[in-house]
């Protein structure tokens, strides 16, 4: 795109620089070749004007294309900027969520450990009571046996 723009600028400069030379050449030709007819020179001039118009049209087209491309680039840049802002916001929100969930997980892990400790204490107490109960049952059985033995 930039190369096309430079080509257009060069063509414009070339045409501007060549116009005075062209006029001088025409004057020299008219003095050197008096045999050439005025219509021949006018025809050449018309051809050159047509070519000049064609170049101007191309330059206009290139300038229009340059404006379109520049507008597209600006639009894409703005779109990219807005996407970057949206991604930064989303990233910040997800980081906050992760921090929140990490805190919750740590809290739940702590609660689970506390519950496990309480459960362990309860199991220990239950085992102690079971052992005590079994001893009492054994003693009761022994006492019942002694009582039966004494009754006989």
UniProtKB/TrEMBL annotation:
The keyword Cytoplasm applies. GO terms for cellular component: centriole; centrosome; ciliary basal body. It is found in: Cell projection, Cilium; Cytoplasm, Cytoskeleton, Microtubule organizing center, Centrosome, Centriole. This is Outer dense fiber protein 2-like. Its main location: other. One of its GO terms (biological process) is negative regulation of cilium assembly. Transmembrane segments: none annotated. Belongs to the ODF2 family. It comes from the Eukaryota.
């Amino acid at each position: 795109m930039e190369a096309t723009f430079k080509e257009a600028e060069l063509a414009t400069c070339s045409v501007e620089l060549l116009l005075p030379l062209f006029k001088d050449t025409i004057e020299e030709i008219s003095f050197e070749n008096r045999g050439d007819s005025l219509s021949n020179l006018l025809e050449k001039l018309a051809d050159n004007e047509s070519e000049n118009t064609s170049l101007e049209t191309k330059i206009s087209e290139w300038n229009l294309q340059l404006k379109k491309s520049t507008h597209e680039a600006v639009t894409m840049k703005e779109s990219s900027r807005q996407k970057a802002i949206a991604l930064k916001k989303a990233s910040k929100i997800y980081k906050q969520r992760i921090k929140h969930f990490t805190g919750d997980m740590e809290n739940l892990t702590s609660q689970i450990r506390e519950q496990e400790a309480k459960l362990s204490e309860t199991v220990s107490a239950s085992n102690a009571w079971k052992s005590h109960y079994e001893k009492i049952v054994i003693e009761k059985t022994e006492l019942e046996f002694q009582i039966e033995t004494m009754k006989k």
